[in-house]
Amino acid sequence: MKIEGEYTFDGPREVVWVLVRDPEVLATCLPGTQSLRLVGENEYEGEINVRIGPIAGVFSGRLIVSDEAPPESCTLTGEGKGKPGFVKGSGNVQLFEQADNKTLMKYDGEVQIGGRLASVGQRMIDTVSKSMIGQGLGVLNEAIKARVLARAEAKEVEYTPPSETEFAAAVAKDMAGGLLSSKLFLWLALAVIAVILVVIVWLSVG
Amino acid sequence: MTKKFIGKRVKRNEDPRLLTGQALFVDDVEIPGMLHAAFLRSDYAHARLLSIDVSAARQRPGVVAVFTAEDMGEDWQPGPPLVSPPPTAKDVIFHSRRQVPLVKDKVRHAGEAIAVVIAESRYIAEDAVEDILVELEPLEAVSDLEKSLQEGSTLVHDDLESNLAAHLIQKKGDYEAAREKADLVITRRIVTDRGAAAAMENRGIVAHWDEKSQHLTVWDTTQAPIPIRNGLAARLGLSANQVRVIAPFVGGGFGPKMMMFYPEEMLIPWASMKLSRPIKWIEDRRENFYATTQERGQNHDVELALSRDGHILGLKDVFLHDTGAYDPYGLTIPLNTQCHLMGPYDIENFTSEVSVVFTNKTLVTPVRGAGRPQGIFIIERLLDIAAKELGIDQVEIRKRNLIPPEAFPYEHKIIDQAFAPLVLDSGNYWPVMKKALDMIGYDQFVKEEQPRLRAEGKYVGIGITPFIESTGVGPYEGARVTVEASGKVFVATGVGTQGQGHFTTFAQIVAEQLGVAVSDVRIVTGDTTEFHWGTGTFASRGAVVAGNAIHASASIVRQKVLKLACKILETPEEELELECGLVRVADTPHKSISLGELALLANPLRGAVEPGTEPGLEATAYFGPQYGATAFGTHAMIIEIDPETMMIAIKRYITVEDCGTVLNPLILEGQIHGGVSMGIGNAYYEKLHFDENGQLLNASFADYLIPSATEMPRIEVGHVETTSPLNELGTKGVGEAGTIPVPALFSQAIENALYNRELEILETPLSPNRLFELLVNEEKSR
Amino acid sequence: MQNSFNIAVTVNDTRYERAVEPRILLSDFLRHDLGLTGTHVGCEHGVCGACTILFDGQPARSCLVFAVQAHGHKITTVEGLGTIDNLHPIQEAFHEAHGLQCGFCTPGILTTIVPFLEQNPDPSEEEIREAISGNLCRCTGYQHIVDAVKLAAEKMRK
């Protein structure tokens, strides 16, 4: 499966770069992330707890950042495994400076999935992934805005990441149209959410 | 002699039990102390098994055992080879690689079983499957047939030089010489892809090893209980009479349940013996999509050489056949494809070269049609293209090439799936095709209706597709027919039944001989204790092979009845008739004796049974045909395509079948309706989507769409009877007939409906999406 | 997960009281706890319709319902329609019109048809096809099922 898109962050490129390379920030941006650890120079390991309906389980993932050109671009390669299946992929992330202190992120990647995620979730993935990535990057943008604001006002960062439930609800809302018109059942859709969460880890880490 | 029972629309004996929920299916078997199994299956299509840790699973309360390949020790062995290549074929390459009970070194397709958990309930077993830690090193997977054969491709079986599983060339006449003389040579690449059998009942096994009696009883959703019994006995070190395999009511077979020794089929009985406990395993639907065999992936590079007047001079086909990760079924499917490539046509020059290819996908074994739909799709597509290029009518080009009635038996001089030379035993093809044309009103539609509807802006099309079906192959079946003291007749035969109505059609055959009511004939199929010789229900052979064995047994019993009654009624045999459960003197009907009384007299408590005779009114007989009987049929269809959605509305659907003697038209129609329904699925709804990594992307009924009542048209069925000279009843099989021509028919009708587009369909299955894509491509290429 | 709940369910007019785990599906409860194996399970994801039962008179997929949810409700399975010696008119019609082959999907179709014919005693072919479109059958191509439903409607109108 190919994933590509772009997103504009409300902050300067340096801030975006620093934040997306900070595992702790990322962990708070992505509800369900149990941990995200720097295990090598450019290598992360993490667990994300996917606990939505019957698709409950921990995905363990590993991510390698390479071809890094701060604060412009990098390549991500990673894989994740969990009870609902596995995900493998790689992608490129580029950051472009924009007017008004904004930053444009362009990303594209190729992701392979297997197991239950693939066999029962495939049909939904394309549409759902767009929604999921949008949601994930939106959360990250809130963090960036909070950082920018804090910097401007020289005070503590105040930012509360959304809860797992809020996050899932937002995605479910985006998916509702597709769900209602098909015979597909919720658990199929939820399987897809699991994979996308992992995808976001990689993309947003960049 | 006019028939009293054969050929009648008799209602089915088996229905009342099925209708009231009283029929036994495998999952209905309950045994005190029974355990339940669940399998850990690979998410990867191709991976090396590095380590497996089942300790947590073993500790879960309620878990009785967890087995891996390692735990099986010496008992771990690949399944037996089912079908070797035909011994008479020349220069065959064949690498036999059979499925394994549990993965030992390497996973070769997604869904392959790695470990089995046996627990007090299925719920606990499934929990424990999640406790197993397995370390797999993913390997590059091969999914595409051509890529699989390319140099340097990942190997499915590391000990082979390539992914070539088998290679075979079959020839008739001299194609190259024929090509030289041709006015037109059509060359195309035609691709067929996979579908699932998707029987409504998934597979299931209950195995019960009774330590005290040293007996193993296995309930199995198999189409072949006797070979399963034989194989289990051999593998488990038991005598065949210690093993009883029962195929009770089975919720649809369609081929994959003929596959023998699925890993679970060997493991569950093995585990039952290890644990001395009864064990049940019922496949779930997702497992069925991965672990039950599939079919129809082939790539064909074909050439058809014709003369200007549309006569076929020769056909050449070089094709790849996808066998999946293993090839237990040998060359059965590609041989069937080769034997159907020439369809019902008189083709003198033929070359066919098949390469069977291993891929990292689920195993391929026959699915209703079994290679035949592919063959028919190829030849019919080529004829449609030829008709367009030569400016000859679609029907006319076929008529010119049909094998004429005087040419039967028609020898094709190639070898079929039963290793016999392909001989079409009998037929009279044109009247069948003509009947289909008349029923659908071909001329009227083409000349009047279609132009009118096109003028209204409608996309209406017509298709007409003749086809053959090789059926009723050997080696043999047998049956025992017994008249009981109650006057009822008991029949035991080895074939299993999966909804074909055997309890009724077989009873009709017996009733015809013995003059009893059809409802007074009790049939047992698929219980190895009741009858222990036979092969199974496949290749549209039940009614032909088992039917004729039953007919033979019943005929012998009839002779015994007459002989005994002749003495007792003191009337010559010729003057006796069997009617209403009695033997009576034809012109003095009150002078009679019931079959029950005769059965008692034939099995006396005192006196002597004469030397050279046997007690009872019972006989066992076998039937083995010299070669298969070949049926013929024609399907015709009128469709309307919605140009916005590409949904197809089937306005009329006609089938005319010539399957020899019709035993029961009601049941025959049912078989055809069901076959067409699967064919429509194959043609326009059902496709198993594997990605390039061997992952199946639509493993549920929400994504894999089998036709529902709203997609199915009303089917009008016509019959023509050309009896087969190969058996006494004159029957030919029909079980797969409905499925075979449908993809070819759809392509023809779609092209006909989209008359203003340059569309050439060279693939099946299609779908509304795919048709839309093809039209977009067509527009781009204009 | 091991906690059991006491439930009371009326199935085919018989009241059953059982302790069940909350995760036990109604289909498994009917089949394995009560031994009513006429209800078949074909897909476990609510598409095929083989496991259809009547839940307070309305067709429902027993593979998508937990047994605990049936507490206090009235369930009818195929065993509650008719017996071998005394078939329900719908069962009779399926026998006469050859509306079944392997018979695996049949119980779910029969239970779907019962309320359908109550609400629509004289249905058209199109309405019948629509009514059974949630029940998959791989054997019959549906034609004889449609004929059987028509015949059943006739029988029941008499």
Write up this protein.
The complex is a heterotrimer of chains A (206), B (782) and C (158). In chain A, 44% of the residues lie in helices and 37% in strands. With 206 residues, chain A is of the alpha+beta class. Chain A has a seven-stranded antiparallel sheet with strand order 1-7-6-5-4-3-2. Chain B has 782 residues and is α+β, with helices and mostly antiparallel strands. Chain B folds into three domains: 15-19 and 474-623, 2-Layer Sandwich (Aldehyde Oxidoreductase, domain 4), CATH 3.30.365.10; 31-139 and 201-251 and 256-291, Aldehyde oxidase/xanthine dehydrogenase, a/b hammerhead (Aldehyde Oxidoreductase, domain 3, Alpha-Beta Complex); 294-473 and 626-781, Aldehyde Oxidoreductase, domain 4 (2-Layer Sandwich). In chain B, a hairpin with a 6-residue loop joins strand 29 and strand 30 (648-658). In chain B, helix 7 (225-236) crosses helix 8 (263-275) and helix 11 (372-390) runs parallel beside helix 19 (742-753). The mean pLDDT of chain B is 95. In chain C, helix 2 (89-96) crosses helix 5. Chain C has five helices and five strands, in the order E-E-H-E-E-E-H-H-H-H. Chain C starts with a strand and ends with a helix. Chain C is α+β, with helices and mostly antiparallel strands and 158 residues long. Chains B and C meet through helix 1, helix 4 and helix 18 of B and helix 1, helix 2, helix 3, helix 4 and helix 5 of C.
